[in-house]
Design brief:
This protein is an alpha+beta fold. It is built from 7 helices and 10 strands.
Length: about 290
């Protein structure tokens, strides 16, 4: 399962926007590990663009009927509850979006098989299907038609988490590669003795240190309640681009062994690719930054 999503994305949504009833019902079992949580935004036809969400939520008395499908959902196969992004007022685009806490045992809620990914192979990612799922009105998270605002308020922290993971991954890869370059010999000497290897690692070490300083600054802003979406987008896009650059260079230094699944650098390289896609693609991050110029 994706612990980061469970604890650091879903739980804050419940904490910040959930009623006292929802908090008491779901947060304790989540903390005890008795319930696993997911958040379902992405659909087959809607990813970074939340205006394209087609899952509908129609109010009928004290319930909403939810219908639609979601894909690429972390914890989708294992989850016991999911925050579902749905349209309550389709005519208003993204501003007609609402969030619902859905118990996956509710009638009409089904899960697809775990999806086979290029990386993060052990992590649970699946499709979800909702066929007129009857959700109590009290399971509305926050305000009706306020889902887009709630999502925007939480996205800076989600994107900063991705940046933190990117820098940690890059730092680990450099450590693995230095160790390997000291033990591997070519033409009678350690490959770390070659100027190309030393200079490549020196450049990567410098850039990752710069990235860490920026991420640390973003963490300070987050703790002060001052991390804005633009700065978080900068951290997410730049650090994940750097992560993949570092991993790719480290695989190259490992040579053929770097392409073998038994080596952690190969798995980290495969895992790193999706970092530039989820949480909003890096192209969307640049668009967010550009709009603030």
């Amino acid at each position: 399962m994706g612990w980061g999503l469970h604890s650091e994305i879903v739980a804050p949504y419940l904490l910040h926007y959930g009623s006292e009833h929802l908090k008491r019902k779901y947060l304790p079992p989540m903390a005890r590990g008795e319930m696993i949580a997911a958040i379902a935004m992405t659909e087959p036809g809607a990813g970074s663009d939340l205006q394209g969400v087609r899952t509908s939520a129609v109010r009928q008395g004290e319930h909403y009927l939810l219908s639609g499908s979601k894909t690429f959902i972390t914890n989708g196969y294992l989850c016991d509850l999911a925050i579902i992004v749905a349209k309550t007022d389709p005519g208003r685009g993204a501003k007609g979006t609402s969030l619902f806490v859905v118990d996956t045992s509710m009638a009409g809620f089904t899960k697809g098989k775990p999806l086979k990914k290029a990386g993060m192979k052990a992590q649970d990612t699946a499709e979800l299907f909702l066929d007129n799922v009857k959700v109590p009105a009290e399971n509305l998270l926050g305000q009706e038609n306020g889902g887009f605002v709630h999502l925007m308020q939480e996205l800076p922290w989600e994107r900063l988490q991705i940046a933190v993971a990117a820098i940690a991954s890059a730092e680990a890869a450099i450590e693995w590669t230095v160790t390997y370059a000291r033990s591997r010999k070519a033409f009678g000497q350690e490959i770390l003795a070659f100027q190309n290897t030393r200079f490549t690692l020196a450049e990567l070490k410098t850039e990752v240190q710069i990235g860490r300083v920026f991420v640390d600054r973003c963490i300070e802003l987050m703790l002060a309640g001052a991390l804005d979406p633009v700065t978080a987008s900068m951290a997410k896009y730049w650090c994940t681009d750097l992560q993949f650059k570092v991993l790719d260079a480290c695989v190259q230094i490992h040579g053929g062994y770097g392409y073998m699944w038994e080596y952690p650098v190969a798995r980290a390289w495969a895992d790193a690719r999706v970092q530039r896609i989820y949480g909003g693609t890096n192209e969307i991050m640049k668009e967010v930054i550009a709009r603030a110029l």
